[in-house]
Amino acid sequence: GRHRAFLSTPYLGLGVKATVLHTWGEGPLRADLTFLGVEGEFTITGVNFRLGASWRVGGASTARDSLVSWSFGWGF
């Protein structure tokens, strides 16, 4: 049918995700590090916000033991 009120109707979503991050090559973190974490996600009418935390579980380094990640997006 017709949906005129698509962007004016409050569509809500919540989510929790597990994350795995492994580094290799060059970048701000050393290569061969592995992180496990969790992300929370909130969506309202196609606008998405994410916030997560990850902890190092593999790889020898004096670098960070934890990371914080975030993102913002729009989709449909």
Can you walk me through this structure?
By secondary structure, the chain is mainly beta. The protein has strands at residues 12-22, 34-44, 47-58, 66-74. Strands 1-2-3-4 form a four-stranded antiparallel sheet, with no helix packed on it.
Structural class: mainly beta
Instruction: Report the end-to-end length measured between terminal Cα atoms.
Output: 17 Å
> Roughly how many Å is the radius of gyration?
17 Å
The helix/strand order is: EEEE
* Order of strands across the main sheet: 1-2-3-4
Unreliable stretches (pLDDT < 50, length at least 5) are: none
Name the average pLDDT: 85
Shape: elongated
Helix content range: under 10%
Number of helices: 0
Question: Got a strand count?
Answer: 4
| Main sheet makeup | 4 strands, antiparallel
Q: Note the beta-strand portion.
A: over 45%
